[in-house]
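Tip: read the tokens left to right.
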């Protein structure tokens, strides 16, 4: 599905909008990842998903300290959002035979700052206060681990 966003007077021209539909089979995932300089919204169109969200507390070169915020089932018409400020890391695993998620995102919220995905392994070392020391991983490793 392709459409063009209209120009809006007063809206910064550095913002980039994107959209996509994920089609996933049972056991496949929108793998665990956070975002840099990006906000996204998801709506489940069909199927069911185990959704997990985490606040991003701290970053190092090799790890991300995260804290679980949402661990729930998402079904048709349910939604979630993520940003640099809340629930930055998310992961959706398909629990129905197949599922569809619509995603819309905006990047370059802060001009001059890089943007993109940061993949992690949330099954890391458990720390005080419910926090997790999650290892930074490549996209291909995330797919191997979480499909």
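Filled-in amino acids:
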């Amino acid at each position: 599905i392709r459409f063009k966003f209209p120009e809006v007077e007063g809206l910064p021209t550095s913002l980039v909008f994107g959209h996509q539909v994920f089609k996933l089979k049972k056991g496949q995932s929108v793998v665990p990842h956070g975002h840099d300089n990006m906000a996204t919204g998801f709506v489940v169109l069909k199927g069911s998903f185990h959704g997990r969200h985490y606040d991003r507390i701290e970053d190092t070169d090799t790890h991300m300290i995260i804290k679980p915020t949402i661990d729930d089932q998402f079904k048709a018409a349910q939604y979630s959002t993520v940003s640099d400020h809340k629930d930055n890391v998310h992961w959706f695993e398909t629990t129905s035979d197949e599922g569809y998620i619509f995603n819309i995102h905006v990047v370059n919220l802060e001009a001059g700052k890089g943007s993109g995905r940061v993949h992690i392994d949330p099954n890391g070392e458990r720390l005080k206060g419910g926090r997790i020391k999650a290892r930074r991983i490549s996209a291909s490793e995330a797919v191997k681990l979480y499909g």
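DSSP finds one helix and ten strands in the chain. The helical segments are 139-146.
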